[in-house]
Design goal:
The structure is a homodimer of 376-residue chains.
Chain A lengths: L1 E8 L2 E8 L2 E5 L1 E3 L12 H6 L5 E3 L1 H6 L3 H6 L3 H5 L5 E3 L3 H6 L2 E5 L4 E4 L6 E4 L1 H11 L3 E3 L11 H24 L10 E6 L5 H14 L3 E4 L8 H11 L9 E3 L5 H9 L4 E3 L2 H7 L2 E2 L6 E2 L19 H5 L2 H9 L3 H27 L3 H13 L5
Parallel strand pairs in A: 4-14, 5-6, 6-10, 10-11, 11-12, 12-13, 13-14
Antiparallel strand pairs in A: 1-2, 2-3, 7-8, 8-9, 15-16
Helix pairs in contact in A: 6-7, 7-8, 10-15, 11-14, 13-14, 14-15
Organism (chains A, B): Dissulfurispira thermophila
Catalytic activity (chains A, B): 7-aminomethyl-7-carbaguanine + guanosine(34) in tRNA = 7-aminomethyl-7-carbaguanosine(34) in tRNA + guanine
Family (chains A, B): Belongs to the queuine tRNA-ribosyltransferase family.
Amino acid sequence: MKFTLKDFDEKARTGLIETGRGQIHTPTFMPVGTQGTVKAMSPDELKEIGAEIILSNTYHLYLRPGHEIIHQLGGLHKFMNWDKPILTDSGGFQIYSLSSLRKITEDGVEFRSHIDGSLHFLSPEKAMEIQVSLGSDIAMAFDECTPYPAEYDYAMKSLTLTTRWARSCKQFLSSLQPSAFSHQPFLFGIIQGGMYKDLRKKSLEDLVEIGFDGYAAGGLSVGEPKEEMYDIIEFIAPLMPENRPRYLMGVGDLMDILVAVENGFDMFDCVMPTRNARNGTLFTSRGRISIKRTEFKADADPLDPDCDCYTCRNYSKAYLRHLFLSKEILSMRLNTIHNLYFYLDFFRKMREAINSGTFKEFKRYWSEILQAKAVG
Amino acid sequence: MKFTLKDFDEKARTGLIETGRGQIHTPTFMPVGTQGTVKAMSPDELKEIGAEIILSNTYHLYLRPGHEIIHQLGGLHKFMNWDKPILTDSGGFQIYSLSSLRKITEDGVEFRSHIDGSLHFLSPEKAMEIQVSLGSDIAMAFDECTPYPAEYDYAMKSLTLTTRWARSCKQFLSSLQPSAFSHQPFLFGIIQGGMYKDLRKKSLEDLVEIGFDGYAAGGLSVGEPKEEMYDIIEFIAPLMPENRPRYLMGVGDLMDILVAVENGFDMFDCVMPTRNARNGTLFTSRGRISIKRTEFKADADPLDPDCDCYTCRNYSKAYLRHLFLSKEILSMRLNTIHNLYFYLDFFRKMREAINSGTFKEFKRYWSEILQAKAVG
């Protein structure tokens, strides 16, 4: 994996990840395509708004339609008609958050599907096999997501297991043939350790010793207070290898992202922009808007006068409100286009700020907007 | 309204309707945009698949968001970002099919909204006012949709009322100022009369005496057996003025459309392609397909190998099945694109068949496919 750092602004940094399927400018935001589609979007629309990489969920695709079927059909890129990079998670987090009856052993996790209750077993080996058969560009090591709160002992045992699994993932991946339609995925290790700094440090050091193409912080944004999360972010980011991409998993609040980028994180994913869009909460350069509010009933203005997305170029707030209240599919489409465009544009501007040494001003400017009460 | 007939193949005919907002080649199919959007589609996609006109529902837009708001925002075309022709129905059929507590008087209909139960009154004058304020290109006269079955006496009284209302519509429309953003709509009269031929004939003759830009057959496909509907279609079409567009309202089954075109109808609308799409029933050149079926689980082929739509060019049946089972929004989008493309393409080919004098062969060929059992 080729990762080139471009500019630094104190600890914040810009860079370029190069893969066989295209470039990724960092810091980058990955829209989430859980079930082989970013909800409400077409691949063409994702390209149009400038997405360079998306995330897809191993757990979901393994359960439905099944990775063997996707493999047989030529891989996930072909299946979903997306030719740019895809990062696949390992399934660990979804087992933690969605499935029932988990039984964790040294070998892996037994769990019941959230779809039909059927019994399944995922292990480091299985997680690698699935991600390779999907044709993933960046695979994640299989981890146990440490819950919050967790006792010190539990967090230590959990990270030890995660580290052991990470080693198994790397070994097993190197023994696997790449899929005919794809390069072998790059592999990222996942740092756990709960809210304990010494455990986080140990987790990271053990992973670095094994050696990965990139490093991710997992087990954050799982219910802990913001201060605790920020504390871990500030602590761990500077310790992570400088010449490898640093990925903060599942954290998508823009304020949190500003803090993480300030400390040197490069990659992010979250359902927040897409999920909020479907619920009618829209991000704008003046703050958040709830599109259902009566004050927009006859509002001829676009959502965001400073936005160049398809939605803002063509539709009024009054129309978007009407579509939302009428529960029209186009409501979810136009709102999602806008929110994702807003996120990707925010990242573009953030990279420019880092490149021009003005990240501090950028952060101060946006912090005020993001922390203000919703404007509508 | 400029309507030019191009070719005849026995009673079937092709023609061209010219409006200030663009041409409409007939026979034409109008996708239904009930609430100011054709469900799951963007206006750009509608253009891409070749839609030349859409239908929008006066009843729905009057109730939500309200025609005054749409007027204030510059009309329906601007509101929904669609600059081609729009035909608006009069609301009569929706009052009949959706609302409760209807009270029909000489002046109009009192009814309760299906959304919130609020009390409303629509009249010929009000229906014209609404359609003008929306900026409609083709307005429909306000009618009472005669239910099926209906006694002879009821059908006669109903059509007499519809005729009286039609006259009021024409008179009132001529007294209204057109909206600043639109030409004054062309006005179509609606033939009622239930399943009684003499009443249908009387209804038509009375309307022709008043004089309209086009004539529509209403009150069909409301529960009557196909034979009765075909009987009325065959009876009434040849009696309708040759030099005016003939519109068969709400009939969208392709077999029915073949019969109607054979007898000289020019315009059609129906929710069938869009609603079926959302339910996973897809039209193909080999017959209907239910996309959820297990046999498509790993099917790498497109829905229809003979189809050039975006969906068929880019996605496998296996992917479409996966999206449908996963209840993804993209499922409804891709299915709708395909079904509407299929309909519009069917109409293109039908016009070619008429122009080249091969409509009979066209009808025979498609009848077999359309009447066969679903293939999947």
